[in-house]
Design a protein that fits this description.
Helix content is about 50%, strand content about 15%. By secondary structure, the protein is α+β, with helices and mostly antiparallel strands. The strands form 2 sheets. Strands 1, 2, 3, 4, 5, 6 and 7 form a 7-stranded antiparallel β-sheet that branches. A two-stranded antiparallel ribbon has the order 8-9. Helix 4 packs parallel to helix 8 and helix 5 packs parallel to helix 7.
């Protein structure tokens, strides 16, 4: 039995710092607005007409029917300077719009995020933008790039389908930046991040139940659950009956993991976070293929529900934990109930 420290105020793990999140985008918007207002050349970086086919834009339409006079000839140095500034602005804009996406990814995944994917999220839009700038007006270069990409074999496996969504978004941001439409990239970035944070805040799809909500709650891989059937839940309560003597319990938490030591530490951190008054680990069960089930009798604090406990566990979720399930099991200190 583990005795934890006196009760402390429980952290609200689902709070999202929307103020800081929106402040970042507001600052970006103000900087971009100032650049467009005081640097006429910057207008093309943010609000360039979408002309993906490479055809010339109808200048008469843009000027109200009157064709502008031909542009004066400029020197090579001016061309190089303009192209360099354009490249810098586009690369910087792509990175600045990717940074909050990387932050949202790390914030919502907590201990489970992939560091290499974080780097890819930040770098990929800039790379895509640079490629688009090179090939957007050349069909031959576009076909050449397609051949090069086809020759490269990608071995990376995406574990979570949502990770692939991040990659697609980064490619979209890069494409928008490459065609000098950073305004579209800005809206896409803030819309995507807002939606992800809202889904995470309200825990959409993370917590599931089988049958009546009081019978079984679980998170993770459903195939690993051992108490899906009513008979299995009853057997679990019978096995826990004798070890529960002397402990007032509310339920049994089963954690399925390939790393029992790490999983035990995560469970203890979760329960210590003002979730449980007391708890007791039962003997673990070892399964084939290296899987182990940790079983914990839990006495939950007042004003805390099993949903809060699983929600807290999901926030601290490490990769070695594959699933967790909770079965109600009421007992008193005098014996099983």
């Amino acid at each position: 039995m583990t005795t934890n420290s006196p009760p402390t105020r429980r952290k609200r793990t689902r709070q999202v710092p929307f103020v800081g999140f929106l402040t970042y985008y507001i600052v970006l918007l103000l900087v971009a607005t100032a650049a467009v207002a005081y640097l006429p050349a910057a207008r093309a970086f943010f609000l360039a007409p979408l002309n993906l086919a490479g055809a010339p834009v109808d200048a008469g339409f843009l000027t109200g029917g009157e064709m502008p006079p031909p542009a004066p000839a400029i020197g090579a140095a001016s061309v190089i300077l303009e192209r360099s500034l354009t490249t810098v602005f586009i690369a910087l804009g792509a990175v600045l719009l990717a940074v909050p996406v990387a932050w949202v990814y790390m914030f919502t995944r907590r201990l489970r995020y992939d560091r290499s994917l974080v780097h890819a999220i930040i770098i990929l839009p800039m790379v895509v933008a640079m490629v688009v700038m090179v090939i957007k007006n050349s069909l031959a270069l576009a076909f050449a790039l397609a051949g090069i990409v086809a020759a490269v074999r990608w071995r990376t496996t995406v574990k979570d389908p949502k990770d692939a969504v991040y990659i697609f978004l980064m490619m979209g941001l890069g494409l928008a930046a490459g065609v000098q439409a950073l305004d579209i990239a800005f809206v896409a970035s803030i819309a995507f991040n807002t939606l992800i944070l809202l889904l995470w805040k309200f825990n959409v799809g993370a917590l599931k139940s089988l049958g009546a909500p009081a019978e079984l709650l679980f998170i993770g891989d459903r195939k690993l659950l051992t108490a899906q059937a009513p008979e299995a839940r009853e057997r679990l309560r019978e096995v826990a009956g004798e070890p529960s003597v002397g402990l007032s319990t509310d339920g049994i938490l089963s954690v399925h993991t390939k790393d029992p030591a790490m999983a035990r530490g995560v469970v203890e951190v979760t329960l210590q976070n003002a979730i449980a008054k007391d708890w007791r680990f039962l003997d673990p069960i070892e399964h084939p293929a290296g899987m182990t089930t940790l079983r914990i009798l839990v006495s939950i604090r007042k004003k805390v529900s099993p949903l809060d406990m699983l929600d807290e566990l999901e926030d601290h979720w490490p990769d070695p934990i594959d699933a967790a399930e909770y079965v109600p099991f009421r007992t008193t200190k005098k014996g099983s109930g």
